[in-house]
Design the sequence.
């Protein structure tokens, strides 16, 4: 049984992606792509916007989406910039709605 659809998922993005994130509009579409060659997370799912990587799904979330994305094509989902308070409190800059993205059981 697949996991329940997830909304408001934070993107793990470090300082390396800050400039790319700042250029994004308030709402946008992201592409999720499995990254099996990632040496830090064997189930990494990269998050791309406007053709550029802006971060990764958090490891505890990516493991549910990695295999379906690895087997199929990349998936798209809506994204939005997080409120300033979210960044100040948690460091989160981007939130995703994974409702339509296929997941593994």
Sequence:
């Amino acid at each position: 049984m697949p996991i329940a659809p997830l909304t408001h998922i934070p993107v793990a993005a470090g300082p390396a992606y800050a400039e790319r994130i700042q250029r994004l509009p308030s709402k946008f579409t992201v592409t999720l792509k499995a990254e099996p060659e990632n040496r830090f997370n064997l189930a990494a799912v990269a998050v791309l916007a406007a053709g550029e990587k802006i971060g990764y799904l958090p490891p505890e979330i990516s493991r549910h989406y990695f295999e379906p994305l690895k087997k199929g094509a990349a998936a798209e989902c809506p994204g939005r910039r997080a409120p300033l308070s979210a960044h100040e409190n948690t460091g989160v800059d981007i939130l995703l709605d994974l409702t339509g993205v296929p997941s593994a059981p």
